[in-house]
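Objective 1.3, modelling of assemblies. Example input:
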Amino acid sequence: MSTDRPIFRHPQATKNSAGFSRKDYEGAISTLCAGCGHDSATNAIIQACFELAILPHRVVKMSGIGCSSKTPAYFLGRSHGFNSVHGRMPSIATGANMANRDLLYVGISGDGDTASIGMGQFAHALRRNLNLTYICMNNGCYGLTKGQDSATADRGSAGKKGVPNPYSAIDLCELAIELGASYVARGFSGDKQQLVPLIKGAFSHSGLAFIDVISPCVTFNNTSTSTKSYEYVREHIDSTNTFDFIPLQQEILAHYPEGTSQDVLMHDGSVLHLHKAESSKDVTSRRRAVDSLEEEKAKGRLLTGLLYVNQDIMETHDIINSTLRPLNTLKEADLCPGNAALKKIMEGLR
Amino acid sequence: MKPTDINNPEYFHKVIDCQYACPSHTPVPEYIRMISQGKYDEAFKINWISNVFPGVLGRICDRPCEPACRRTRVEENPVAICRLKRVAADFKTPGTDFLPEVPSEKNGKKIALIGGGPASLTVARDLLPLGYTVDLYDNQAKAGGFIRTQVPSFRLPEKILNEEVERILNMGVNSHFNYQVDSLKKIVDLGYDAIFVGTGAPRGRDLPDLPGRMEGGEAIFIGIEWLAGVLYRHIIRSGPRVLVLGGGNTAMDCCRTAKRLDADEVTVVVRSPKAEMKASPWEIEDAEEEGIPIIDNHSPLEFVIRDGHLVGMHFQKMTTEVDASGRRRLVPTDQPPVFMPCDQVLLAVGQSNAFPFIEPELGIKMTERGLPELDQITHQSTVPHIFFGGDAAFGPKNVITAVAHGHQAAISIDLFCQGKDLHDRPGPAVNLVSQKMGMQDWIYDSRVSIDRRHAVPTVDRVKSLHDRLMEVELGFSKKTGHEEASRCLNCDVQTVFEFSTCIECDSCVDVCPESCINFIDNGDEEDLRERLLVPADNTRQALYVSPTLPTGRVMVKDENVCLHCGLCAERCPTSSWEMIQFTYKCASAGEK
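Predicted structure (tokens):
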């Protein structure tokens, strides 16, 4: 088994506007099972970072425990990272984010890490609308401990052991919309054409951007009876919309028939240019978003794409009115109001 | 595009760039692998079967394989294939146990070989094991032809040449040395079943019309004749100031030899720009390293004679002009002629064929260029039992081409003697061997070395300039040979894709360091080449296209810069990618 990749890259491979090649966003070679969906999700993150010309040293990647939480080792090898306790990625991310709001935070978690042991943490990160891209690589099973059903496994779905799951599934996207996330999307590791723009949109979003990535476990949950296999997902996938991510300072060139497109202006000036399957569906409406998810679910379909986005919900820093600057840039003069101010306060208390 | 037919042996053969580029199609990656494993005998044998003269070619081959090497498309320099061939020859155990058995009972067919160069010797080697009686005629005292008389000993020691030539002669060739064939009819009248003419391109071009050529006669030499004179020690000193005219490998051999015969000043003068010189880059490099200036864009005007002696030459400065149709041509400038003083001139301005011994009444048709009219594949002339090969066939080329001709002529002669159709030729022997060893391990060494090309050590240049018999290059040591061998990218280990088991998980796409693999909607070739992850603009390299997959897409792999690192197969959950060694062995005479 190879322990590293050859150093050579395609001689015609291009560089992005920051002067980095795609290789600069790669990490170590994956040690996950061959064919794991997580590797594709990882590569979608690399691709999104490359295309957005993100500076690697301005990114923080956080994770918990699980197969998915191993993946930060496989991308952005030149960025900061913290591999935390099982299910505790949101609190570590919150702490880091409070200390330095200027960095880009990418949280990687799995269905076990998010929907079981980390459910409490997940819920509170959502309702605080922490400025974090939260990517859940969702394979419906506990791959690291030999494939037991997880909390996101659909009722009736059976993995390699062949026993159908008797419990109801948690729909992480519905939960995220419900609990206050301001950008909610669902992707499929086998469809990078959709996944890469979803990640790029999430990176430019201010607030909690949650992406549920259906990412098949080839070893334990890729059977014909599983609802999270490559084959099943491909057959049952439906998309709310396709969209172009238009970074700031780039002209919108595509034109679509009236009523089928919707532009969402992001805080950093970028635009999400959506081409919708149905003109009635408005991604900025929370009720419509949940309705759409439920309608498709009733039809036995899996809805993917950008499900909900709301630029008006304030992110944590704005809610608590914290300083605009990273804490490490605050000097004594910023933190200590000075003798005169202190005296004045003391006077006021006499 | 239609799915690629990998059952066509030429598809994977083309992926092995070096082997494909070699006129003899030597299985380069396989012998390099043997060297990296220390199996020098096996490496030598692979070479010997394919190119007959590993020790010679490991030194003086034109190396068409090296510019073709995949490594040049990934980094700067190709694997030192030629020098690795020498490693195999240098470190093999002495002995001849790899030789095929030559039957003592002959098959009754008699073959004549005219000329004892590499083409003829190859025919002899291929036909002797089949029971043919082989008579060889050569006007020199020893066999070897051009590689003996014109390649100087500091590039190819006589000992090496003797070993490889004698190995073939000892297989049972009836040699007639110092035998000038001045009438092919006489040979025909001896009743041979087939005759092979491998007399090379023995005539060096002269400049007979240049003023002063007659008067300066004593001091002006034809390069290849002069080199032969040096070899046979008829010439032991050169003039103090030597001009060498010409920009080919013969010119390089002439100037370096002159330097070793105590010339004080040696200068090479070339008519065309330096970039267009015919000599191999490494030969030019060696000459320059020995302090020989190369002056380009100078066309000879006249030999200057004073008091009956050559004192120098006049040259016209040339320049390159691009005409309306975009063709480049050399034109004289209006600058006054340039005078270069000299005492001796060596002319290395080209070679041509000459067949003074072929009588017109034999019926061998000749072309306008003075070459025999031949079947391009069978090498058969218009007289059915007379065949041509080497430089005598299609004009001056190189040793490895002559060997390839010898193989083809031997196949033709064998078919001819059995009364079979010469165009119904035996095909290549191909084989596919899986390299899988456990889940994610390979039999071949799949790691990609990041070493840069290793330089070949040389003897002290000053010392070598005083001894024309001292070989300049020392060859790689076993250790350096191993390291250089590890640079080979194993292009013979093919990435073979089975579409029916693919689940389109993208793992191969994600892991491929060179972004070769794509899963996209099908289109015509031009369209596909543009739409790949990295556009495939090297159209000389094939696209590997699968049948349509369940999602309606196809797998398209650009073979151009694939490192054959095996990662796609390692990361494939269904073994839809497999690393399979493809061996391609050209047919030789006597095979079905």
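Chain A touches chain B through 32 residues (CB under 8 Å).
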